[in-house]
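Exercise 7.
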Amino acid sequence: MTAQNKKQRSRSVIRFLMEYNPRISILGTALAAIAAILFGLSWLHIIAIFNTQPTPPVNSISIMLSGLSLFLSRTPFRSKRLPLAIATVSLLIAMTKPLLGAAGLMSSLWILTNSTIVCLLAIAAILVSIQKPVAAQVIAVLAILLFGASLLGVVQTTPGSKVAILILYASGFLVASSVLIRTIYRGPLYRMVSAGSSAKYIFAQAFLVVLLAIGITYLSIHNTIHPYFVPMAVIAILCLIYFVVLKLMPFLSHEQVQPLVPPARRQAINDIEEALADNQFESYYQPQIDFETGRLVGAEALARWIHPENGVVAPADFIPVAEQSGQIIEIGYQILERACIDAMKWPFFERADVNLSVNVSPLQLKAPDFLDNVQRILNATGLPAEKLVLELTETALVRRGEPGFDTIWALHRLGISIAVDDFGTGYSCLAYLSDLPVQYLKIDQSFIKKLPDDSPSATIARSIVGLGCGLQIKIVAEGVETVRQEEFLKSIKCHKAQGFHYSKPMCQEDFLDWARDFEEKPSLENPAQMEGKRVFIARGLS
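Solution. The predicted structure, written as C-alpha cells, is:
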C-alpha cells in the first residue's frame, strides 16, 4: 500500500472513536451481566461472594440496561423510543436502593453512594437517547469522578471479596466512557479531541480535577475529620465549581433551546443534532469549468442532508436553522472532511489546475479552533493545502483586529486559497480586498442570470472582471445556465464558471461519471453542440 493510499484510508479521531463506541458499550453490558449473576447468586445464597450481608443485584442490572440503551442508540439504529424506554427502566431500577435508604430501610452509606452513581449513568443514557449530548457528558464525567473516588474507598475499607465489586465498577466505567464517546462530536469533549493548544489546556484542567477528587477521597478515608482536611476540602470544592460552572456550563447554555423558539424550529434543531450523530450530511459537487482551456478544473462541495425517511432536504430548510443554533460549525467540519476524502479519489485531481472549493460559515471562521481543525482534516485525509479553496461570503469577511482576521492569513500561509463568494451583493467588500489574501472572486448568480441582455448586470460583470485582472484575482461566475451567458462571460475574459449549464450538484458517484464523460470531450469551441447532452445529464440527476 502506498503512502497516498494510507492517507486516504486514515480517519479522524472522532470518527474512529464513534465507530469503536458500540464495542465499549456492549463490553460494559457484558461485564455488568457477569456482576449481576455473581451478585444474584450471592443474594440467593447459592454461593458466597461477600463476607457481609449480600444485596439484590440492582446496580449491576441497571448498568447492564444503561449499556444496552447506549448500544441501541448507536448509528445506524433509527428508533428513539426503545433506547429511551430501556434507559428509563434502568433509572427506575437504580432508584430502588436510594428510595429504601430514604425510607430508613437501608442504612449502608457505601451501597447508597454506589446506587446514586448508577442512577447518574441511567440519566446519562436517557440524555443520549433524547439528543442532549453535552448534558450527558457532564453527568458521565461526574459519574466517573464518583466511581473513581468510591473505588478507592472499596479498596481501602471493604472487608469482603472484591472481585464482583471490581467487575461492577469496571462495567460502570465502560458505560460512562461509552456515553462520552457517543457524544464526542459535541461540547467540551469535541474541543479536547481536536488538536489545539486550547484543547490541551482544557484536558489538563480536567485531569487535575480528577487527581484532586481522588486525593480528597484518600485523605477522607485516613483522616475522617482533620483540621487540615477541612480547608483542603473547601479548596477542592471551589475548584470543582470553577471547572463545572466556567468550563462546562457555557456548553450547556449553548445547547439549550431558547423558550421563545417555535416548536417547529426546536424540532428542526433536534433533527439536525441527530443527523450530525448519524453522519446524514453528504457532500455534493458542482463542476467548475475553465474558459481558456475548456477543461474541468475543480468542483464546489455543497452540503446536502440525506434524511433516511424524507430523502434530500433542501439547504434552505436546514442551513438557516443550523446557523442560528451554531450547528453549522459541526456540519461544516463534516462536509470539509467528506469532500477532502472524496477529492483524493478523483482521477483528475492530480492535475495542477484542479482544486476543491468548500464553503465556510462566518461562525466557523470565528471559532477559536477552526485553524486547528482544518489542519487536522488535511492531515487525516492527505489533501494538499494548495488544492483547497475555502469560500467565504461577504458577511464572513473581517477587518484587521477582528476575530477571524489572523485565521484567514494563517490559512493563506498554509497554502490554502481564499475565495469571496456572492461577490457584488454587499456594499463594503472592496475595503477588505486590500487587507485579505483573496485569490478568487465569485460573481453572484443574481447578476449572471440577467446576462447578457440586462445592461446594468453586464456592466457590473465587466467591472468585477476588470477589478480581478487589476488585483491579480481570478474570477468565477456562478449560476451559468445558458450558452449566451457563457459566451458573454468568455468575451469579457472571465476565468471560470459553474452552473446548471454544465451540471447540477451531484453526489460523488454521479460526479465521477459526469467528469469521465466530460473529459472525453473537453473542447468548448461549440457549446451549443454539447448543450443537449449536458442538459440531459443534469435533468437525469435532478
